[in-house]
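Section 5: illustrative case.
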């Protein structure tokens, strides 16, 4: 549906009481989890399976949902030139905004100097806790990265849950189905029905979102404790301030140019934001984002291509984390980086941020990979961040989620496939059919 399409306004629905809203349940669960983690840490740590189970339930349906959404969208579009155009615009946007987020992370690190005053000696840092991360991180060439996108088998893409591999299989399947023309329509309709069924499963899973958020946040506070953040409160504060400025200024300006308010958009996806806040996993919000962006007026093909690809190529929060963390460690060791070294860092971080998609603890693995490829700064300095990574990871996951939503709206607008009536209605909290 294009931007000129009008939709009749549906009669207003009865407002659901606030205490029955999902975001209220999740917010209450997060607060209870924090209190339990602080006052009964031993019991709180035992809540970890609740958070893990919720994330596993969501990941269970991500592959099939991406497959069905992308295949139905591409087959329904029937024009592979258009698919290439949408993909090209998405990648262009990803790279421009990713570079900007990396540069903002560098600028914030210089202005706020969170690592100043530590005066650490690299030889006195015990890096034994990093051994597990170091074995997962390694320098990855462009060829290795591209080869990793191709699964060993079609089924293997869904077994491993690698989003890029599932996306590749989905695009190829959708293109082949589109080439069948009329003969492929029954299969397209069948896949559309399967997609609706999986979204129904997501709705069932989301009823447990509050339990999952409670378990994840209780474990985090119970394990690390609020006191563990105090020595590094300056870094955490500087990081969250930078994330806030990026969302309000950069994404806010992009939203204004495209005709929507960033705060209204965040209100629209508040359930997804709170789920990410509670679980520290942006993947937990992926199915909900796919569905909500379509309801917001974005076309199915654009949503199906941009959102999954963004989980590997459009990591705004992660990029800010990478450059700020590297500068923090350098400042803690009193290492002065030259302008050339900092520009090299941006390039290295841009590459390593693509290489850890689908890896547990991806942001920390990316940071390890960046320091291994950029040996000017001792990798042992990551010990400083290890204890607070979970707290920083929550913020970067939220910004990644918001950034991918904004990217989808932008590409839809570029393609003239953003239904402005639905967008305006959603932002004004009205319902349009």
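Designed sequence:
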């Amino acid at each position: 549906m294009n931007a000129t399409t009008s939709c009749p306004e549906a009669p207003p629905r009865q407002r659901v009481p606030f205490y029955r809203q999902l975001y209220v349940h999740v917010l209450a669960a997060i607060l209870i989890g924090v209190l339990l983690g602080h006052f009964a840490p031993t019991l709180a740590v035992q809540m970890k399976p609740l958070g893990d189970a919720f994330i596993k339930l969501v990941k269970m349906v991500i592959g099939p949902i991406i497959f069905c959404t992308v295949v139905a969208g591409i087959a329904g579009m029937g024009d592979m030139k258009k698919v290439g155009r949408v993909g090209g615009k998405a990648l262009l946007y990803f790279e421009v905004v990713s570079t900007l987020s990396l540069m903002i992370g560098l600028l914030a690190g210089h202005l706020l100097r969170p690592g100043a005053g530590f005066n650490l000696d690299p030889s006195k840092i015990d890096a034994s806790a990093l051994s597990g991360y170091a074995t997962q991180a390694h320098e990855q060439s462009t060829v290795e990265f591209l080869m990793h996108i191709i699964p060993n088998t079609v089924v293997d893409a869904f077994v491993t849950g690698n989003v890029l591999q599932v996306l590749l299989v989905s695009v190829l399947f959708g293109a082949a189905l589109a080439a069948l023309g009329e003969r492929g329509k029954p299969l397209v309709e069948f896949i559309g029905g399967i997609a609706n069924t999986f979204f129904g499963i997501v709705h069932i899973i989301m009823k447990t979102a509050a339990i999952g958020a409670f378990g994840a946040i209780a474990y985090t506070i119970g394990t690390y404790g609020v006191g563990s953040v105090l020595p590094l409160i300056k870094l955490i504060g500087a990081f969250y301030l930078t994330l806030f400025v990026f969302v309000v200024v950069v994404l806010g300006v992009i939203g204004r140019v495209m005709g929507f308010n960033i705060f209204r958009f965040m209100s629209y996806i508040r359930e997804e934001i709170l789920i990410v806040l509670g679980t520290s996993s942006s993947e937990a919000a992926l199915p909900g984002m796919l569905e909500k962006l379509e309801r917001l007026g974005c076309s199915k093909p654009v949503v199906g291509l941009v959102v999954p690809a963004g989980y590997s190529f459009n990591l705004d929060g992660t990029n800010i984390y990478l450059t700020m963390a590297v500068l923090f460690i350098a400042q803690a060791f009193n290492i002065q980086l030259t302008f050339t070294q900092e520009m090299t860092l941006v390039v290295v971080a841009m590459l390593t941020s693509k290489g850890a998609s689908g890896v547990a603890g991806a942001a920390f693995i990316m940071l390890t990979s960046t320091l291994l490829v950029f040996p000017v700064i001792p990798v042992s300095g990551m010990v400083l961040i290890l204890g607070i990574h979970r707290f920083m990871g929550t913020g970067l996951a939220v910004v990644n989620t918001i950034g991918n939503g904004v990217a989808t709206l932008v590409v839809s607008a570029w393609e003239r496939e953003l239904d402005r009536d639905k967008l305006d209605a959603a932002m004004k909290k009205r319902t349009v059919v």
